[in-house]
Design brief:
There is one protein chain. By secondary structure, the chain is mainly α. It has a single domain, classed as hpI Integrase, Chain A. It has eleven helices and four strands. The strands form two sheets. Strands 1-2 form a two-stranded antiparallel sheet. It has a two-stranded antiparallel ribbon with strand order 3-4. The protein is globular, with a radius of gyration of 18 Å. GO terms for molecular function: DNA binding. This is Tyrosine-type recombinase/integrase. Keywords: DNA recombination.
């Protein structure tokens, strides 16, 4: 099995981080590290929902104009080759600003999440290891990796909006470029929860 196939399998199997307490724990842990890159990677990742490859290809010029963090970012998706526009919320902006303020000078052409081994971007494999190792060190049970960031984004959009906005699943489906709503539900791990709730609601 090639490295790419291995990562694809891992991407399909990994879970979203469903507990907001666990998310806070991860952020606090990464924030405590001297280098704020991984904290920013995690925070931006769970707030914008990009695929790992697209997230890691972001350059400083994509998020910063004249020393101001932008409201909207436009990219060309690696997988679909389509233009994608997304907003940076306050959490993502604050994390980016914190990180950029620690850098020695700003090179707008530099990758936002640069590898420590050179001028290139952090690789998907390295980012996967960072996420997986962090969750393991914090003893947060489950199978996690880089793709957990995108799944966490989608999961929390769903659970935070489903009561007041029944059409949110259709919006998510479009945002994630899925073929059907059922694919999106399965992707964010809702299907198993719903089935379990049905069983547990029955006490004949």
């Amino acid at each position: 099995m090639t490295a790419n196939n291995t990562l694809k399998v891992k991407a399909d199997e990994v879970e979203p981080i469903k507990s907001t307490k666990d998310i806070a724990k991860v952020k606090q842990y990464l924030l405590g590290k001297e280098n704020k890159r991984d904290y920013t990677l995690f925070t931006v990742g769970i707030n914008v929902g990009l695929r790992a490859g697209d997230l890691l290809r972001l350059k400083i010029k994509d998020v910063l104009i004249d020393d101001t963090i932008v409201d909207k970012v436009v990219i060309c998706e690696e997988k679909t080759d389509k233009k994608r526009e997304f907003d940076l919320n306050d959490s993502a902006k604050s994390a980016i600003r914190l990180y950029l303020d620690t850098l020695q000078g700003i090179d707008y052409e530099s990758y936002l999440f640069k590898s420590r081994k050179g001028s290139g971007a952090l690789t998907v494999e390295s980012a996967h290891k960072i996420i997986k190792t962090t969750l393991r060190e914090l003893n947060i049970k489950g199978n996690y990796g880089t793709h957990s960031l995108r799944k966490t984004f989608a999961y929390h959009i769903y659970v935070n909006n489903i009561k007041n906005n029944p059409t949110i699943i259709n919006t998510l489906q479009k945002m994630l470029n899925h073929s059907s709503a059922s694919v999106t539900l399965r992707y964010i791990g809702i299907t198993k929860e719903v089935i379990s709730d049905v069983y547990n609601s029955l006490n004949l």
